[in-house]
Amino acid sequence: MTDISHVFQYGSSESNGRSVAHEERLQRPLATGEVPPQRSAGQLESPPENRSDGWLTTRLVLLALTIILLGTAAGLLGALVLPKTYGARAEVLYTISQDQQGGDPLRQNRQLSNQLVFLKSRNVLEPVAQKQGRQFKDLDKDVSVAVLDNSEVIQVEADGPTKLAALQTLQAVMDGYLTLIRQPSGASLNLATQLADAHANTTQIQTRVQQLTTAVVAGTATQAALNDARAQLTTSLDREKAIQTKIDERKLSGEAGPDAQLLTPPYSLPDPVFPQPLIAAGTGALVGVIVAGVMVALSARRRMRP
């Protein structure tokens, strides 16, 4: 037992001695031309910058998250502070018959596009702008028009500082548009005048026939006069029907102009159209992401430099 203990003690002392000697060699000053002793793999230490990598990464992540949150908060704050703009909306049904289309969808799209231009033209907006004491270009910015997908419905919107102002502006625009679009052409106006004259003539002859009928019974008028009045009445009715037929044919062929009618009367939108909190917050968050990304990229670039 004594021999074995001596062996282990000797081995341990020898190992400790070598270790102490090796440390002394590492710590003592080097002589001129002497090669410094190399450390073993187990004695290599990690460089200081490697120990700080995790801390720097965490710091950058926290900084990026802070910037994004600040951007989101700034967007929400802007939505609460900025002046609000309200909107009103209406819809017009612009009916295009098959005869007007001619089986060409592109022609239908052109006709609808022409109506969008007409809605934003000076003929429609200038009277409204003058009535409100505004410039045409200012009103033009507050009015927007669009055709709903795969339909003949035109959506019209107007903006204003209050719900009432937006609604009044849109109502004036729609009244002006519908008044102009429904004005008959020269030929249609002529037929309408002829129809009115024919109807008035028919009414007069009907009154005369009634009077002659009473007079014939009383013996104060002849049957021949009554028959002549009835013949005139038939002729006037036929003329009235012929004129009405021409008017109907013009409507079917599209020569009388489009059939535009107010599908949805103007109404106020419940929420402001600008600024919208969700969009403002999303915009602020996007700006924060961009700024944070630039800062992280610059930091990574600096760390990669030798």
Question: What topology does this entry show?
Answer:
Blueprint: H1 2-27, H2 48-81, E1 86-95, H3 98-101, H4 105-119, H5 122-132, H6 136-142, E2 143-147, E3 153-160, H7 163-181, H8 186-218, H9 223-253, E4 259-268, H10 277-304
Antiparallel strand pairs: 1-3, 1-4, 2-3
Helix pairs in contact: 2-10, 5-6, 5-7, 8-9
Structure description:
- With 306 residues, the protein is of the alpha+beta class.
- The protein has three domains: 57-81 and 278-304; 86-184 and 257-273, 2-Layer Sandwich (Alpha-Beta Plaits); 186-253, Helix Hairpins (Orthogonal Bundle), CATH 1.10.287.
- 68% of the residues lie in helices and 11% in strands.
- The chain contains ten helices and four strands, in the order ααβααααββαααβα.
- The protein has helices at 2-27, 48-81, 98-101, 105-119, 122-132, 136-142, 163-181, 186-218, 223-253, 277-304, and strands at residues 86-95, 143-147, 153-160, 259-268.
- It has a four-stranded antiparallel β-sheet with strand order 2-3-1-4.
- Strand 2 and strand 3 (153-160) form a beta hairpin.
- Helix 2 (48-81) runs antiparallel to helix 10, helix 5 crosses helix 7 (163-181) and helix 8 packs antiparallel against helix 9 (223-253).
- The longest helix has 34 residues, at 48-81.
- It is rod-shaped.
- The relative contact order is 0.14.
- Mean pLDDT is 77; it is low at 1-23, 40-46 and 99-103.
